[in-house]
Amino acid sequence: MNFWEWYDRNLLVAKQHDVPVYELDWLVLQQTPLDKLDLRLRSPNISLKITPETLISLERIWQKRLYERIPIQYLTGSVTWRNLELQVSPAVLIPRPETELIIDIVAENCQDKFYQQGIWTDLGTGSGALAIALAQHFPQAQIHAVDYSKAALEIAKINANRNRQQVKFHHGSWFEPLAKLNLENKLAGIVSNPPYIPSIEVLNLQPEVTNHEPHLALDGGTDGLDAIRELVNTAPEYLIAGGFWIIEMMSGQAEIVRSLLQTNGRYTNIQTLKDYAGIERFISANKKH
Ligand SMILES: C[S@@+](CC[C@H](N)C(=O)[O-])C[C@H]1O[C@@H](n2cnc3c(N)ncnc32)[C@H](O)[C@@H]1O
């Protein structure tokens, strides 16, 4: 079988297995010398660039995608997120496209020097996506990133180096490492995409997620709000007056998180923001003066 026969057959197989067909292209682009133009032009000569060994390897990886439902990003070991190339492994959540919007919202709301030259933290950094993008957006800021998973922090460090960004990584639970650094009342901003899925729902997500992504990254406790409560309650101790706070949340959580922020009493300018699908996915606020 030549490359095109293999490719065409698997376009059909992908549809039959409910796997997006663009994942086949991602795999080929990652694992072979072919580029997007090669795939579009479909020149018969292109088959010559693919050795029989490469075809066997593509087939082996693709079988894992189809039958073991392993996310393609774990199989290829990388993902493009904003303009960043990030390494991923089953130790980290695969950063999602909608999470990119957190950086756009920060960029729009935090244009003063106060924010640009301030101290920021990304709580639950995973692959490091948000922390690294923040460092890129605010080259004069100091960025701290925290995670409870040591394995995730190893990947995040690799990603910061790979993307040439300065981020200080800390192991521990939420604000714990920041307390050790005496960062109370010093942060210009806090971003977080915390685990927010109710425990029982974590077991019933797509098999790609339930069986392969780290549950520490997904499971937000009985009602999904354990981490969010901690982030709402403790952040005012660490933010400077006027400091910016933003988190990602699940569809249906906006109203309760808004009321948690209001009841806390130390926040102002509370805003919910929608993702690409029109779902209220983010909530931001400033610490009161
Ligand atoms: C939804 S993932 C987000 C990862 C990354 N920020 C992103 O947006 O792709 C949540 C992250 O929170 C981390 N986490 C879970 N519990 C934590 C805790 N108690 N303290 C710090 N991080 C925690 C997980 O290890 C995971 O990396």
UniProtKB/TrEMBL annotation:
InterPro entries: DNA_methylase_N6_adenine_CS, HemK-like, RF_glutamine_MTase_cyano, RF_methyltr_PrmC, SAM-dependent_MTases_sf, Small_mtfrase_dom. CDD domains: AdoMet_MTases (cd02440). The keyword Aminoacyl-tRNA synthetase does not apply. Belongs to the protein N5-glutamine methyltransferase family. PrmC subfamily. Substrate binds at N193, P194, P195, Y196. It is an enzyme of class 2 (transferase). SUPFAM superfamilies: S-adenosyl-L-methionine-dependent methyltransferases. GO terms for molecular function: nucleic acid binding; peptide chain release factor N(5)-glutamine methyltransferase activity. Gene3D superfamilies: Vaccinia Virus protein VP39 (3.40.50.150). Residues 113-196 form the Methyltransferase small domain. Methylates the class 1 translation termination release factors RF1/PrfA and RF2/PrfB on the glutamine residue of the universally conserved GGQ motif. Its EC number is 2.1.1.297. Keywords: Methyltransferase, S-adenosyl-L-methionine, Transferase. This is Release factor glutamine methyltransferase. It catalyses: L-glutaminyl-[peptide chain release factor] + S-adenosyl-L-methionine = N(5)-methyl-L-glutaminyl-[peptide chain release factor] + S-adenosyl-L-homocysteine + H(+). S-adenosyl-L-methionine binds at G124, T125, G126, S127, G128, D147, W174, N193. It holds the Pfam family MTS. One of its GO terms (biological process) is methylation.
